[in-house]
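sry for the spam today, last one i promise. struct tokens for design, 104 residues
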């Protein structure tokens, strides 16, 4: 039985991974694996899979939020374009005057 239902059920290509741990950690891992009826390799694999399984879900949520933020910004920009700019055609300000106001 798969402890994490979000993990794929199909067989996937496996690859070995070598790690270094303190002797005391290895000893405890062996005891824990034996109590669960697993090999140390299977125990570590489950722990790593469990730790990484949520990341794809987190990435999906972040992408959804990014999309929502983009859609909100797009909608706001569309509203602003429909409103138009508050432009007063009778109030022409020459470029030189603007330059004097902001840069001197």
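last one done:
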């Amino acid at each position: 039985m798969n402890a994490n239902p979000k993990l794929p059920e199909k067989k996937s290509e496996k690859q070995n991974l070598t790690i270094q741990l303190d002797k005391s950690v290895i000893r405890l891992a062996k005891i824990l694996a034996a109590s669960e009826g697993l090999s140390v390799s299977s125990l570590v694999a489950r722990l790593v899979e469990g730790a990484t399984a949520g990341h794809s879900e987190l990435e999906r949520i972040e992408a959804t939020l990014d999309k929502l933020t983009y859609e909100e910004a797009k909608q706001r920009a569309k509203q602003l374009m429909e409103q138009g700019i508050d432009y007063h055609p009778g109030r022409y300000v020459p470029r030189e005057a603007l330059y004097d106001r902001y840069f001197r």
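The chain has three helices and no strands. ok im logging off now
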